[in-house]
Amino acid sequence: MPPAWFPLVLTIFCGSGAAALIYEVVWMQQLELVLGASTPSMGVLLGTFMSGMCLGSALAPRAARFIRRPLRAYACLEVITGVLAIGLLFAMPLVDHVYAAWGGSGASGLVVREAIAAICLLPPTFAMGAALPVAALAVAPDARGTAGLGWMYAANTVGAVVGSLAAGFYLLRVHDVVVATYVAAALNFIVAAFSIVCETFSPLR
Questions:
Q1: How many domains does the chain have?
Q2: Residue 45, C-beta contacts closer than 8 angstroms, at least 6 positions apart
Q3: Which pLDDT does position 40 carry in this prediction?
Q4: Which domain CATH number covers 166?
Q5: In angstroms, rounded to a whole number, what is the distance separating the alpha carbons of residues 13 and 159?
Q6: CA distance between the termini of the chain
Q7: Which residues form the domain of 177?
Q8: How many CB atoms lie within 10 A of CB 136?
Q9: pTM score, two decimals?
């Protein structure tokens, strides 16, 4: 990637990080209303969220030999994340009915919570966790590429901070989970579009 394109790349990763943390705050709010805000419920939600991210980041490099265009694969993962997030928004009433019918207290209730959290959160968080390792496949394995990868992760972290603040102090405070989800999904789709542009029109392609 030419140096002149690098600010665009950093913006892409910043937007991806912002969307991820908006989703985390929104999903915690949504599932708290269904599963409850008790300590076991919060532990299940956080554990499932982080497990999905971990699985995605751990398994994505194993598929490296099958990925010929990393930025396009990254764009696909961003689109998948946005689509799944919107789908979860509309599926939440059904999730509420399922938990009301099958949930309970004790060990059986905890198992139901874990199952619901896994079904809701593992697919999108897996895609989110796989996105950065897949994009990293486009980085040259030299000192300059490694430094660029560090800046990309830093931009993603900055975006995550901005996203969590925006979700907690503006999107959910002034609007609601619907608006917050659409904002995060829009960021996913914009990031995907910019990734395709970088991959398609880069003079070093």
A1: 1
A2: 27, 28, 31, 32, 35, 117, 121
A3: 67
A4: 1.20.1250.20
A5: 7
A6: 8
A7: 3-201
A8: 20
A9: 0.84
